[in-house]
Each structure stands twice: as structure tokens, then as C-alpha cells.
Backbone:
């Protein structure tokens, strides 16, 4: 830790657990660079709040003393910082070197390996085909019995979940099946995915191709380079390593490849960072560099048969996501009503109305699909659509938390 004079925490995952009868805070680096974790007793955990890059060890000691009344020795603090550094939880030369090595490996690989293969879905192609077929068969029967209210025109875009297939498979199946004809005819598919690790208002590109158990979906690097040139290469690829483990685009790619019967097409994978500062009113996404990226992307796909996908979930509510009380039937019904309101804006093809509704409510339902849906609607421009399926998926063992999802086609 000699080089880390003023320690600053890197992005991480944290949660409280019980260990040997003691409440401890469990932390691990969230991008998958390290398989190590750090557990701090509840009495020591507040020291992490002072690791913001402004204090050396002595100032950390003084701040923690004022906060807790506990006078830690510098040796104890250095030991804590050393463990954090070894787990790549601090901004330090150790983390920088690990990140650069991982990025070099990612870029030099022949393609991006499926991160969730063998975990969230089968890695063996026939087994995966059978899994998705089982989700799709009931949808085929349902589609034959229903009259589609808006079937004019080719599908130009869709909202697809990025929740796991076990909970959301039937919604994936409905929306991808309705869009199947246009998906099979597409020359280029643009996929906007939620970047759960992304910085605010940031788009992250990659030239690497996504692979699935059926083969490789080649990234259209010519289109990627046009967008990167517009927003600046440093900004476009600064967080490229997020693509390695982010699941949103990966899960959409699985259904894309399946719907095309294993036939490849060119893909433009774009991760979208948080819109929190836009929702808070600090800025407007329509006036940001997102507009520059969209203009470049729109020009790059001009004349190509293109389908635009937003890999996006909706609300995340209940104790699992920080709410103080479980959501019962009444609260779940209220979530459904609020979801239907923003889905109405999506069906109208209105990015502005979709964003306005979420800003007005302060995004209190934590709609993690806000950025990719907004970007897809802006790119599509004039469109009209309908929601083919909506569901609320359990998010804890007690049923008091949920993630809502929907499948929307846009024509």
C-alpha cells in the first residue's frame, strides 16, 4: 500500500452477512477482475465511507475516531487497506495492472466468451436449443389463438428483458417470436444493453464479437468506429472491459442467434450507463453527447435493414432493492399501473414521454432499463408498437420483492 497514499474505493458489490454469529460487511470487486473478497465487522465497516481519495492513513484514523469513538492503530488501518488492495477494491497500481492485463486478454481473444454459458443457460448448443424451444412452443399456440392488433409493417425494434431465462423465458419467447421475420431478414442488429457497472450517461463500445453456443455474431466494427469517432475513442472504450461480464447484451444475443436459426448477422453492441443524473435534473439526455452518438449511429446504419433492440428490465422494488417493507398485492398492482404508463410511452415511440414519466416519479421504481429503452426509441424515431407480454418476477424467497419485465415490438 505504499503507493496508495490516499485510498479510494473502486466500484464494488457489498452486502451484510452473518459470520460466526457476527454481522459483517462483505465486499468484492464487481467487474470480475478478482476472485477475492473482504469481510469487515460491522464496527469497522464505516471506515470504508472515508476511503474517497481525500485522506491518508492518519486522516482516515482521525475521521474514523470522530465517527465511531474507536481509535484504530495505523497498523490495523494499513492491514485493512492491504486486504482491500489485494482484492482489487482500491484505485491503485495493483488494480490498474490487473485491469490492463484483463483488457489485453479480452481484446486479443478471438471473440467474447459467453460469460453465463453453463451457469444461467446450457453451454451445449443442442441443450440450449431445447430450453428455448420449450419456452417458445406455448407462445406459438397462444399466438395462433390471438389476433394481433397492430401487425402492419416490419418490426424495427423491440424491448426484450435481460432477466434470467428461468424467470423471464416466456416473455423473451413471445417478443422474439413476434419479431422473428424481421430478425431473420436483418442485416444489422443494434443492441443497447443496460450497463450495470457503467458510469452516468456513458455509452461503452467494443470491437470484440459476442459468441453464443451456436457460434459467433460478428460485431460490425465499421459502425462501431463511426460512433467512436463521434464521441471520442477514449470515452467510447474506456470501460470496454464491462462487456466481458455484463449479461444484458449476452442474453439478447442468445435469443437473436436462436431466432435466426443459428445464422449470424452483424451486431453493434452498446452498453448504456446510468441515467441517474438525468433523472435528478442535472442534465437532459437530449442535450448530451448521447445525441452526438445517436446521430453518428443513425447515419452509419442508413440504407441497411436494421433492427434495434433494448435489452432492458423494468422495476426493481421490495426489500431486496432497498425498500423498507415487502410489496403485497396492492403495491404490486400499483407497480403494474406505473409500468403500463411508461410502456404506453414506449408503444407511442416517444423517448421524451418515456423519460419524462420516469423523471417525474424520481425513478423510485429503479427502472434499470431506462437508458437502453430511451436510446432505442431515440434511434428509431417515429414508430408505433404494442406490448406483447408483461410479467412480475419474484426477487426474494418471501415474495416481497420483484423485478418487472415486458416484451414490446415497435414497427
Residues:
Amino acid at each position: 500500500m505504499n503507493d496508495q497514499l490516499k485510498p479510494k474505493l473502486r466500484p464494488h458489490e457489498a452486502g451484510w452477512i452473518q459470520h460466526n454469529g457476527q454481522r459483517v460487511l462483505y465486499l468484492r470487486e464487481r467487474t470480475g477482475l478478482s476472485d477475492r473478497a473482504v469481510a469487515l465487522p460491522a464496527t469497522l465497516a464505516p471506515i470504508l465511507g472515508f476511503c474517497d481519495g481525500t485522506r491518508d492513513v492518519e486522516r482516515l484514523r482521525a475521521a474514523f475516531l470522530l465517527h465511531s469513538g474507536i481509535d484504530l492503530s495505523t497498523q490495523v488501518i494499513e492491514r485493512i487497506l492491504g486486504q482491500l488492495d489485494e482484492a482489487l477494491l482500491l484505485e491503485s497500481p495493483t488494480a490498474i495492472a490487473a485491469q490492463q492485463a484483463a483488457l489485453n486478454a479480452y481484446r486479443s481473444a478471438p471473440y467474447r466468451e459467453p460469460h453465463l454459458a453453463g451457469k444461467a443457460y446450457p453451454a451445449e448448443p443442442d441443450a440450449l436449443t431445447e430450453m428455448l424451444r420449450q419456452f417458445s412452443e406455448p407462445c406459438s399456440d397462444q399466438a395462433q389463438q390471438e389476433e394481433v392488433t397492430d401487425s402492419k409493417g416490419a418490426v424495427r425494434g423491440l424491448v426484450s428483458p435481460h432477466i434470467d431465462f428461468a424467470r423471464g423465458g416466456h416473455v423473451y419467447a413471445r417478443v422474439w417470436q413476434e419479431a422473428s421475420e424481421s430478425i431473420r431478414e436483418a442485416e444489422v442488429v443494434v443492441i443497447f444493453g443496460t450497463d450495470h457497472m457503467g458510469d452516468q450517461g456513458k455509452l461503452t463500445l467494443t470491437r470484440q464479437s459476442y459468441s453464443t453456443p451456436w457460434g459467433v455474431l460478428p460485431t460490425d466494427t465499421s459502425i462501431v468506429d463511426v460512433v467512436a469517432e463521434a464521441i471520442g475513442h477514449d470515452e467510447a472504450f474506456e470501460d470496454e472491459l464491462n462487456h466481458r461480464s455484463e449479461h444484458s447484451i449476452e442474453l439478447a444475443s442468445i435469443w437473436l442467434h436462436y431466432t435466426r436459426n443459428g445464422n449470424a448477422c452483424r451486431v453493434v453492441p452498446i452498453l448504456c450507463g446510468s441515467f441517474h443524473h438525468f433523472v435528478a435534473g442535472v442534465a437532459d439526455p437530449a442535450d448530451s453527447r448521447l445525441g452526438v452518438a445517436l446521430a453518428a449511429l443513425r447515419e452509419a446504419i442508413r440504407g441497411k435493414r436494421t433492427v434495434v433492440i433494448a435489452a432492458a428490465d423494468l422495476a426493481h422494488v421490495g426489500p431486496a432493492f432497498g425498500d423498507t417493507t415487502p410489496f403485497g398485492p396492492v403495491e404490486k398492482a400499483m407497480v403494474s399501473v406505473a409500468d403500463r404508463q411508461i410502456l404506453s410511452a414506449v408503444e407511442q415511440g416517444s423517448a421524451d414521454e418515456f423519460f419524462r414519466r420516469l423523471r417525474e416519479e424520481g425513478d423510485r421504481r429503479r427502472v434499470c432499463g431506462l437508458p437502453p429503452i430511451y436510446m432505442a426509441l431515440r434511434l428509431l424515431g417515429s414508430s408505433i408498437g404494442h406490448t406483447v407480454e408483461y410479467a412480475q418476477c419474484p426477487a426474494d424467497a418471501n415474495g416481497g420483492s420483484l423485478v418487472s419485465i415486458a416484451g414490446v415490438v415497435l414497427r
Remarks:
- The longest helix spans residues 125-145.
- Residues 12-104 form one domain.
